[in-house]
Design a protein that fits this description.
single chain; two-stranded antiparallel sheet
């Protein structure tokens, strides 16, 4: 399932708290996001059609909740990125960020720690 960038903003709101009405989603959008109510409702409808969210009627409004787990979506998105740009390999991705000075000292330290943990698991 492909979730667009705009749809992902709505999903982040729902992953943070649910169920929510459309008005509650609008109120929880990140600062600086000035989408009209109709835009948010369009995005919610798209996500419904994709079965990424559910809607249950409560009185005169609908309450929305995610059906797709954030972890599953992140895994799918990151796998797709790796396949499209780096032939499915992680090392060229890290090399790319390293060569373009996008890795901080903290990033490098975290990567070293992760590699050590992976190495320990393989022994």
């Amino acid at each position: 399932m492909r979730i667009s960038e705009a749809e992902a903003v709505v999903m982040e709101v729902l992953w943070g708290q649910h169920p929510l009405s459309a008005d509650e989603v609008i109120a929880r959008l990140p600062a600086g996001n000035e989408w009209a109510e109709a835009t948010v409702k369009t995005l919610l409808n798209r996500l419904l059609k994709k079965a990424a969210i559910s809607a249950s009627k409560e009185g005169r409004r609908f309450l929305y909740a995610p059906l797709v787990q954030r972890d599953a979506w992140v895994l799918e998105e990151s796998s797709s990125l790796l396949e499209r740009l780096f032939d499915g390999r992680v090392a060229p991705l890290v090399a790319h960020f390293s060569q373009n000075q996008r890795l901080s000292r903290d990033d490098v330290a975290e990567l070293r720690k992760l590699l050590e943990e992976l190495d320990d698991e393989q022994r």
